[in-house]
From TrEMBL:
Molecular function terms from GO: DNA-binding transcription factor activity; transcription cis-regulatory region binding
Protein name: AraC family transcriptional regulator
UniProt domain HTH araC/xylS-type: residue ranges: 174-271
Entry's transmembrane regions: none
GO cellular component, one term: cytosol
Amino acid sequence: MRPCFGIQHRENIIDACVIRARQPHTLQRVPIFATALCRVRQGEKLLQWDDRQMRAGPQHLILMPAGRELGISNFPGLHGHYIADVVTFPGSTLRNFSSRYGQQIMSHRRAPQTDLCVPLDRHTTQAWDQLLASINANAPDALRTHYGEAVLLSLCLGGQAGPLLMDRNDPLCERVQQLVMGSPERDWTVAHVAQHLNLGESTLRRQLAKEGDSFRNILESVRLATALQWLQTTSRPIGEIAGASGYASASRFAVRFRSHYGLSPRELRAAI
């Protein structure tokens, strides 16, 4: 499986990456911009959200809904390695799935399901393996979607897909995120983004405020999330990653990264 170099830019395609680490480490306030599923191959992951926490291993599937902010700790296994596969789902795939399988979703909906770590059954495991195989083989988008929907349907039939299919109700926020993800190194301004989205600057600011967000917050969150992904999945130098993520100063990047995630880029790299 190729590294997720640019995975965030392929917002209309189901894609995947592999996360590896050799030392235990914790990342706080990790923003999830694209809905994803994660399965740990070796080691364990501790997930924290909404005053809750759960540990997940190879027997679990981890749900990472877009719009969440999670605390994540990764722990290597007995062989000294942490390895996990992460598959991202574009919003269009989730919307099409909800439309196509709405009846099955409603008929298997139980009490509100809020767990983000769910046990894998035989059918979901089989669907997951087929999905990863199709991505590894660089299968056509239609086949990736087919196997991706098989995973979602299996979760639905078990009453476990609820958190993935909730409507975030923040389309403008999502559009700004996707726009910035395409070129995080660019010197983005409110004026540039508003022009791209055919909005006035005041309208953009007002709509984002209604959604409880701001342009400055989205810009920094996207840049830090991009840097985090590159630090975890590529061997690019830290200074190069800082520049490619939109930070002219590597030292300022390190300060902002530590402030947000709770450890420095060098500390994270040392754990990988």
